[in-house]
Amino acid sequence: MTSPSASSPAYGSCLCGGVRYRVTQPFRRANFCHCSRCRKHSGSNASAQGRVPADGFELLAGDELLRTYRPPGGMVKVFCATCGSSLFGGTWPEGTEVSIRLGTLDDDPGIAPQFHTFTDDAAAWDPLPPDGLPRYPASR
Length: 140
Hints:
Metal Binding Protein, Guanine Nucleotide Exchange Factor, Chain A, 7-stranded mixed β-sheet, 10 strands
């Protein structure tokens, strides 16, 4: 795995290609989040996401397609209005980090999820995998 950098960025996009972005700094961390909000937003058992410094994230196209939802007491969820892809969020756009959905990357992020969070909120039908990663009942 090769970490993104200014000279070797990682690119990402939504399903329809209308929203495109680039990552120019290494990810600080990556995890699987099993909270009900991430499950509902991703439509899956967990959201695989990585955190990158805000100044290492650049939106290249599709600003007009972005829709943002901030649940009460929760982090921002950003998606494409055309195809519905869950793209990024966290404290974007005004915060110090961007939480990028790893599945939207077209290139190697240089990191794999390192832990599971909100395991107490995991779906009843989702036995957590025996992957040896640390597990946290709530946030880390």
